Amino acid sequence: MFQLCLMYLISSLAKAQGVLWYQGTALYYVLRVSEFSLPAVSPLIYNNVLLSSLLTYATLLFQVAFPFLIWNKYTRPFMIIGAVLLHTAIAVVMGLFWFSATMISVDVIFFDDKSYQAFAQRCQSLKAALERRVASYIDSLRLAPWVQKQKFLVLYNNTCNICNKSVLF
């Protein structure tokens, strides 16, 4: 874990010495290189000067803060979420999938078993809450007067699961 923090710190300090990084234009120039750009997404970033500068500074700030804030139990989840978002963006926008996958898998080492279990429970409770909310919304649609007044004729052949479920509605 110390090596990962050292890597983030050295990377950020090396970037901070570069003119493009402290001027906020590094991301603009990186995304203009055809090997590191996704044609559908990259122009959306480098054509927006404010967004390009903001993302450049955010990357630099995150990498400087990571080695220090990751050790605090209160800021650790935010730093890991930030690392996952940063490396997911690198994978999508720059096409560096294997680098990003490796970095994400190394970043999550900072979570212990208790944290993983709490995360799994939180995901299950969010899923259950979402299912309840969707079910209540569907029930409210069934009771809505504008739905009850309508009569529908639905033709289906009883072989499609989606069709069978939609007829139940």
Q: How would the global form be characterised?
A: extended
Rounded mean pLDDT score = 85
> What are the secondary-structure elements, in order, as H or E?
HHHHHHHHHH
Biggest sheet statistics? none
What oligomeric assembly is this protein in?
Answer: single chain
Describe the structure.
The relative contact order is 0.08. The longest helix is centred in the last third of the chain and has 31 residues, at 113-143. This protein has helices spanning 2-16, 19-23, 26-32, 42-46, 49-69, 76-94, 97-107, 113-143, 145-148, 161-168. It is mainly α. Helix 1 packs antiparallel against helix 5, helix 5 packs across helix 6 (76-94) and helix 6 runs antiparallel to helix 7. The radius of gyration is 24 Å and the shape is extended. It has ten helices and no strands.
Brief overview:
With 169 residues, the chain is mainly alpha-helical. 75% of the residues lie in helices and 0% in strands.
